[in-house]
Amino acid sequence: MMWWTSSFPIDRWWRKKHEVAFGSKEHFSSSRIDMTLEYVEDKIFEEISKKSEEESKDGFTEEEDNLLNKVTNTESFWKKGVERKEVKLTEEEFDKLDLSQFDDIKDGSGEEV
Fold first, then answer.
1. pLDDT 10s digits, 5-60
2. How far apart are CA 107 and CA 69, in angstroms?
3. Residue 60 per-residue DSSP state
4. Is 71:105 a contact under the CB 8 Å cutoff?
5. I want to staple 89 with a disulfide (CB 3.0 to 4.6 A). Which of 13, 24, 50, 94 is the partner?
6. What's the maximum distance between 2 C-alpha atoms anywhere in the chain?
């Protein structure tokens, strides 16, 4: 039994998931191909769920957060002695803002982000 379990770990995973005893009729009638497909499907679903959890924190994936931090590295900007001011805009004023100047933002290496 130990040789089987170490040789076919997906079989062990499947038996544990479905609470099927080793050597039972249900175990012998199962297909290793079906077990493998089910295992792969579970791993893919796990990965998708993990990404969804990351996104649900603040609506951004970790990759998007890194990109935003690169583009909006305000800490270094404010260290240059620029006075920080809070500007409050009405919704109408905000809608009128022209943000096209930020379309071609480049990081410190000159590459577009």
1. 788 888 999 999 999 999 899 988 988 889 999 999 998 888 877 776 666 566 66
2. 11
3. S
4. yes
5. 94
6. 76
